[in-house]
């Protein structure tokens, strides 16, 4: 009797209907939030917050429906059911209705809880251990069979997009693009490539583009014995290229016999269509980004990405590429407008696709460049929550922690990146740069030399190797490596570094000539103008020409500081420039700000020493120099630096070499 009465009470008070309506309404609300929230650039956790709030409201709704009834006269207290006739009547006529509503409620509740578990899983790193013994593969550039050199971008682009799809899977260890693409157009056998990249499988192929159709042949090969595991040819319209890439990636995974959970399997299917012309522009932009990152190549990339988003304004990857290209321009010329445009492109990409790791990587770099370190760390950690084996995310975290002065954490992430991709030259470069920046220059040399072996056509590898040898006093090896860098790519960096060598050899007039060539190639780089000012100040070409060079350096550096006020190195260098044109108060102000931000930074200490030496503040200059030397700055560089000439005749300076 009591059970029947309780059930009748549930029916009479409408509790069962409220349960069904509430569960269904919560599910609809979730669907709307999942679609609408990204359009307003709301964070991912905001959808989880909706789930939590609706779950909290559920028992409250049940209690209210039990206690009150909604009538024509308003909300009134519910009247208990006491009549046996009412109980029996309900039991006979409404049992089917109650059963159906209960089943519906349970079904919607199950779907609701499943969705909640899925949303929470997105915020957690994959349970696959990134460092485990995973199946490894490298994706090589697809050979252009079109007979037209201008179509080279298509094969490279298709291969890169397939690589990016496979790299989303924590179950696979995918060689980084910059490593595998190094072998493009090189006559090297599969086994050697596998050994060089440290992978067990190679995906290669070819592409032929005729009219509006493409023919793509792909084949998966075991690296150790050349055995073909799978091959297939696809004839498709250009508009079906995205779907074809998904199919190839899925076939590769099946052929490798890798078991994927549903979440990883879903990552291989993007379920989106992109305007074919927009996609073509996008692939051309990516091709420019694969070239050396000089200004002309980056501007060309920006042009193609702009045309891609103009054709398809919901193409997230194109906005991400635009962000990356603009950020590259900003790194080259320090033009603040490029930074602002990069920020806008990044946020637009994120609004369109919150699961695109390339967007989070670009945002992380953007926030790091502007000194917003906490935000940068959040973005790189988001990448790791989506792909725990992302070496690029660990490199980004390392770069961010290093700039934020947390050297131990920086070293941890650089080492983790190298563990994930032992043959990835960018990870090796990051460790070398980390050791270089923290004063362990000699320890950095083996990493740089290894990169020169992996990337013998990289001017950056030889440039960094030369810099390390230079700082350890091996000027002969430095000259050889810098000359090789200049032969590979006559860039502003290469001209500047050779000029710096001449400056320390006190060949100031020659240094002026090469610094001018560097400035011509990167006119927005304030450091080059500052170096040119130093060279003029000590040359026989007219010391009065130094002042306008320093003034230009200050103007450009201040533009950079508008973006990142926490850039201690730049602040210290600006202090040096002001000191050399006799602006004492301005120099001291910038130096104080730099030292307040990074009191143990050897480069800040060294620039402080050169600035104070120029101002004839001998004792403070010597104290700053001693701090720099104690942190690892090489004494032989200080001894050769003409910017310290004012303090070199002091007993304290002469005593430095004896300590």
Strand content: 5-15%
What's the total number of strands?
8
**Overall form:** globular
Sequence stretches where pLDDT stays below 50 over 5 or more residues: 118-132
CATH C-level class of the domain at 135-258: Alpha Beta
How does this model look, in words?
By secondary structure, the chain is α/β, with parallel strands linked by helices. Among the domains are: 2-122, no CATH class; 135-258, 3-Layer(aba) Sandwich (Rossmann fold); 564-656, Serine Threonine Protein Phosphatase 5, Tetratricopeptide repeat. Helix content is 67%, strand content 7%. The protein has helices at 2-12, 15-36, 45-67, 84-93, 95-122, 152-167, 177-180, 190-197, 241-255, 262-267, 276-289, 295-311, 316-333, 336-352, 357-369, 373-386, 391-403, 407-420, 425-437, 441-454, 459-471, 475-488, 492-504, 508-521, 526-538, 546-563, 568-580, 584-597, 602-614, 618-630, 635-640, 651-656; strands at residues 68-71, 74-77, 135-139, 143-144, 172-174, 201-210, 213-222, 228-237. The strands form 2 sheets. Strands 3, 4, 5, 6, 7 and 8 form a 6-stranded mixed beta sheet that branches. Helix 11 (276-289) packs antiparallel against helix 12 (295-311) and helix 14 (336-352) packs antiparallel against helix 15 (357-369).
């Amino acid at each position: 009797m009591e059970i029947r009465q309780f059930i009748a009470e549930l029916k009479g008070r409408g509790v069962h209907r409220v349960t069904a309506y509430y569960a269904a309404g919560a599910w609809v609300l979730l669907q709307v939030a999942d679609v609408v929230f990204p359009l307003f650039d709301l964070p991912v956790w905001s959808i989880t917050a909706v789930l939590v709030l609706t779950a909290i409201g559920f028992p409250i709704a049940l209690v209210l429906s039990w206690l009150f009834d909604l009538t024509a006269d308003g909300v009134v207290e519910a009247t208990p059911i006491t009549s046996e006739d009412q109980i029996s009547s309900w039991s006979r006529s409404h049992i089917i209705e109650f059963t159906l509503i209960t089943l519906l409620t349970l079904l919607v509740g199950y779907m609701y809880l499943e969705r909640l578990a899925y949303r929470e899983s997105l915020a957690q790193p994959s349970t696959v251990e990134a460092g485990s013994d995973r199946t490894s593969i490298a994706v090589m550039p697809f050979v252009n069979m079109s007979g037209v050199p201008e179509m080279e971008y298509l094969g490279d682009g298709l291969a890169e997009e397939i690589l990016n799809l496979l790299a989303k899977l924590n179950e696979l260890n995918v060689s980084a693009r910059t490593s595998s693409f190094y072998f493009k157009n090189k006559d090297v056998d599969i086994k050697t490539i596998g050994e060089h990249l440290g992978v067990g499988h190679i995906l290669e192929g070819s592409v032929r583009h005729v009219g509006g159709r493409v023919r793509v042949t792909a084949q998966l090969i075991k690296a150790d014995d050349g055995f073909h595991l799978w091959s297939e040819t696809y004839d498709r319209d250009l508009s079906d290229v995205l779907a074809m890439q998904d199919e190839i990636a899925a076939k590769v995974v099946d052929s490798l016999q890798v078991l994927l959970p549903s979440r990883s399997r879903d990552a291989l299917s993007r379920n989106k269509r992109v305007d074919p012309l927009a996609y073509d522009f996008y692939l051309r932009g990516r091709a420019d980004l694969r070239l050396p990152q000089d200004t002309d190549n980056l501007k060309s990339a920006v042009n193609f990405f702009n045309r891609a988003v103009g054709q398809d304004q919901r193409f997230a990857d194109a906005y991400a590429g635009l962000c990356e290209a603009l950020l590259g321009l900003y790194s080259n010329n320090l033009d603040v407008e490029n930074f602002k445009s990069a920020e806008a492109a990044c946020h637009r990409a994120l609004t369109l696709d919150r699961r695109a790791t390339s967007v989070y990587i670009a945002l992380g770099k953007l926030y790091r460049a502007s000194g917003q370190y906490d935000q940068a760390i959040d973005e790189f950690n988001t990448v790791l929550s989506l792909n725990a084996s992302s070496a690029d995310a660990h490199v980004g975290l390392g770069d961010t922690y290093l700039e934020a002065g947390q050297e131990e954490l920086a070293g941890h992430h650089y080492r983790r990146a190298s563990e994930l991709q032992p043959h990835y030259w960018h990870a090796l470069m990051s460790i070398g740069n980390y050791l270089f920046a923290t004063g362990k220059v000699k320890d950095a040399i083996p990493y740089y030399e290894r990169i020169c072996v992996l990337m013998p056509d990289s001017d950056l590898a030889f440039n960094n190797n030369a810099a390390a040898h230079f700082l350890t006093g091996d000027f002969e090896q430095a000259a050889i490596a810098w000359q090789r860098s200049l032969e590979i790519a006559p860039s502003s960096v290469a001209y500047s570094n050779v000029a710096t060598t001449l400056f320390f050899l006190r060949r100031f007039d020659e240094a002026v000539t090469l610094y001018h060539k560097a400035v011509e190639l990167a006119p927005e780089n304030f450091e080059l103008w500052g170096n040119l000012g130093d060279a003029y100040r000590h040359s026989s070409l007219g010391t009065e020409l130094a002042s306008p060079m320093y003034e230009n350096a200050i103007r450009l550096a201040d533009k950079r500081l508008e973006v990142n006020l926490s850039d201690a190195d730049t602040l210290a260098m600006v202090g040096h420039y002001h000191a050399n044109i006799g602006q004492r108060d301005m120099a001291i102000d910038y130096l104080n700000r730099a030292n307040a931000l990074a009191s143990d930074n050897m480069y800040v200490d060294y620039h402080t020493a050169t600035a104070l030496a120029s101002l004839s503040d001998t004792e403070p200059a010597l104290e700053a120099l001693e701090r720099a030397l104690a942190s690892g700055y090489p004494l032989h560089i200080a001894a050769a630096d003409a910017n310290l000439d004012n303090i070199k005749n002091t007993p304290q300076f002469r005593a430095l070499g004896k300590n």
